[in-house]
Amino acid sequence: KENILAFGDPIIINLPDGNYRMYFTDRNDHAFLASAYSENGYDYVYERKITGTVSLTAVDFNVLYEKRSKKYYLYTRGEKDQLIRILESEDGRNFTKSFTMKFPFYLQFSIIDEGDYYRAYGSHPVSAPFGKDIRYPVLATSKDGLNWEETEKQPVGPWKENKFQASPVAVIKMPDGGYIFY
Length: 182
What we know:
Number of helices: 1
Oligomer: single chain
Distance between the termini: 29 Å
Strand order of the largest sheet: 5-9-8-7-6
Radius of gyration: 16 Å
Shape: globular
Helix content: under 10%
Strand content: 35-45%
Order of helices and strands: EEEEEEEEEEEEEHEE
């Protein structure tokens, strides 16, 4: 087993084969993206630097395996607020297509697979409208992982009463149907 030196927050996704892949910014390779593979979610083996025909340096990124299209989407910063660059891959290791889309939230977000759609909790854009309550995260949904729509009903939680600002970066769905924000 090799020591993995991750710089920044790693992202772990469930793979179609039931195993796991961790994506992270590799501190040893001038902030390029790299990955590690695990069969049990605990023990990871370094794979290598992510490759592609597009530039792959990324900060504040997220990854989704979209099961219907059988593609991996790597989301990273666009050039302007609410523009997110999306890199596409067939195998999760070699990204060959890049495009930019407007999202209802800023880049830092978490994605939860709800079966027939995806739920994402994200940060409010830097240019959030005046008077918008930014104490809670933006909730958006998507059927394909590309087209996200902000929902009318935003998440409720303890941050409503005590003005706690929730982090949308680390969210998990519990077996009872609730969500935990870390």
